[in-house]
Design brief:
The chain is mainly α. It has one domain. Helices cover about 85% and strands about 0% of the residues. It is built from six helices and no strands. Helix 2 packs antiparallel against helix 3. The chain is rod-shaped and about 75 Å long.
Length: about 200
């Protein structure tokens, strides 16, 4: 029975890790789409506004650095989560294999604390992934609006987009991320924000 409890817990850990990894991989694939959009915008500004490629890259570098920092945090959180859970499973199996006493009571005491700590770590990872996704949506929406301008794109439009994104990145949005349950909510929030920006800065 004790071994079955540990096996069940290990299956849950692997399932959670798999789901979190899939979510992280999805966000990585989304980043590839952003990279393509940035490259197209870079070409447009180079061709129609004579903005040098290195100046384009320099202007957006801090925005990308901020995103990369959060992405690295997510990878580290996932790695630590998996490592710590494996160590805990190993400790449980040692209790099961110990001779001379019934391990059930020891395992039940540990399990309650473990599940609480596991849930807290899961929430930390989910918050980080949601923050990545929200900021990716911010950038995608801004890039899309600029690409739609085509030959009418102006350097000042690019600067205005970057300013709006930096402002959003600088805000503490933790409470907001706690309320976001799916990608559609994030997308709607971002679109609403950009509509406000456009209405305040008409062409």
């Amino acid at each position: 029975m004790a071994a079955g409890i540990v096996d069940s817990y290990e299956i849950r850990v692997e399932t959670v890790c798999s789901l979190l990894t899939q979510a992280n991989n999805f966000l990585h694939s989304f980043q590839l789409e952003l990279d393509d959009m940035m490259n197209r915008l870079r070409i447009n500004l180079t061709n129609f506004q004579s903005l040098r490629r290195k100046d384009f890259d320099s202007m957006i570098q801090d925005v990308l650095d901020h995103q990369r920092e959060i992405e690295n945090k997510a990878v580290l959180c996932l790695s630590n989560f998996h490592k710590e859970e494996q160590e805990m499973i190993g400790a449980l199996r040692n209790i099961v294999s110990a001779q001379g006493h019934d391990p059930i009571e020891d395992i039940e005491v540990m399990l309650e604390d473990m599940l609480t700590r596991q849930k807290n770590r899961e929430l930390d990872i989910v918050k980080t992934l949601k923050q990545i996704q929200a900021e990716q949506e911010e950038l995608k929406t801004g890039l899309k609006r600029l690409l739609e301008k085509g030959e009418d794109i102006r350097i000042k439009d690019y600067k205005a987009m970057l300013k709006a994104i930096r402002t959003q990145q600088g805000k503490d949005s933790r409470d907001l991320f706690d309320l976001l349950d799916d990608f559609d909510l994030v997308r709607n929030r971002v679109n609403d924000q950009w509509q406000k920006i456009v209405s305040m800065n008409p062409n």
